[in-house]
Amino acid sequence: MEVICKSENDGILCFDTTESLFLWNEIENITPYRHQSTYKLNNFNWNKAAKRPRTLVCHDHRGGYLEYESLQGITCTSLPNKDKERQIPIYSFFHWWYIDIFVYFSHHFVTVPPDVWILAAHQHGVLILGTFIIESIALFNQSFSDDSITDKIVSSLVDLCKNMNFDGWLINIENRVYSVYLDRLEGFLRKLRRDLRDNVHNCTQVIWYDSVVNSGELCWQNELNKDNMRWFSAVDGFYTNYGWTECHLQQTLETFYKNFSDDKSLFDIYIGIDVFGRDCTGGWECFKPLELIRRYNFSAAIFAPGWICETCPKRDQKISLFDNSTRFWNLLKPYLFPHKMFSKQFCTNFSVGFSSECLHFCSEETNNFCMKNLNIQPFYLSCTAFSKDLKPGILINNVGMFNLFLCNILIEQTDRYLEMSYKSSFPVEFVIEVSNSLNVEHLLVKTKEKFVEQTEGVQDKMIKFSSHSTNQNSEEGQIEEKEDSPLIIEDKLKLNLQQKSGWYIKK
């Protein structure tokens, strides 16, 4: 198979040969929708991420390019029988605010992230990378036999990023490289990095996976050292193999400060954690290696988090993907650095694309999963109040104050009002924290009574947030309210930004 492009509506594309890669832009009707604004990178600030350890997630779920990752989605009952033998047949990701880079991984020569993953990552301010992997000497020699061929590969990879709206490449060379090709490989990395910055955007990333050493031998080092630092010098990031110990971290630190402290950041080194526990501690105990990584101030690369649905739960348990995901990421929470919402205007109903029934093992429900319908997610790790019900909206079943979004929304001098409209099935209070410098910092929700779900009482919940300019005069701190309806409450909070700061509370 040379090209996977199921249809113009699938949003799925990858390549297995150089010939097919060079012809990619001749495929008719290939994803024209990627130019829509919904695929642009929002809520992103690399300057912030550059000043702290980062978290990279490398997707590796059952070979990739599964039917449920297509634009049209899939109904649970249409899953093949072999999939129903698995505990949870669908993997999705909800904790976007806690990671910085998402890599879509497969073993195809060139892996382009599916549309649905690009959309999900970008609306949460996360860079998303494809994968360039070579696992045979024959394919490598063909790809690097001549400068003109290598240049065409670079051009194709850059064009894919530019036209398909993603942000760079993970480079994984899993075969011996003969000495005659070593300089050309380094030149390929440098040119790819430079051309991505020049033609896509200045925060694109080329990340090298710890495999081939400077001599060309395939020899995983589990660290950055004198034998592989040549490749780090040519790219943006270095992703280590998973069989490391604390001694490897110490060697990586020493190598970095001796050779790279002037032109690289310690945060450009991503120490690998395999969630399946191959050559390292994994599973529910991934927090242990992550804690050690953060002790040395490195970034982390979490590989194959789909473990939560491939391995868990046991066959006789009815636990959802959302349950497992929340459990897994809550264990990592102390060692994560969330990034913030920057968009002045956003709208979300918190949908994750499907309902909880189709996440359970061997469900017979005819629920549709469509990841394209995923909306902006809240900061789930800020509390444990959200139920596993994954219909549009969120169900808060505890009493208290819960942080929906961490924000850094700059209010301009010309912005007179801040407005938030919402729908809710039960009475709530919203708290918006605005600093003295008029930056929105938090959006919280407060519940007074525990809400008991009613058959007709739970509907789609939506929050729409915006700040805007107006010449209309208003009294200080004016708040517009509507009388609560018995089931669906539609309300609006309006604040005069030029006359108040501090804590604003909707009552």
- The number of domains: 2
Q: Average pLDDT, to the nearest integer?
A: 80
For the largest beta sheet, what order do the strands appear in spatially?
Answer: 3-5-7-8-9-10-11-12
Residue ranges: pLDDT <50 for 5 or more in a row? Answer: 5-9, 80-87, 451-460, 469-487, 500-507
Keywords:
single chain; 507 residues; alpha/beta; TIM Barrel; 2 domains; 8-stranded parallel beta barrel; 4-stranded antiparallel β-sheet; 12 helices; 21 strands; disordered C terminus; TIM_ENGase; mannosyl-glycoprotein endo-beta-N-acetylglucosaminidase activity; ENGase; Cytosolic endo-beta-N-acetylglucosaminidase TIM barrel domain-containing protein
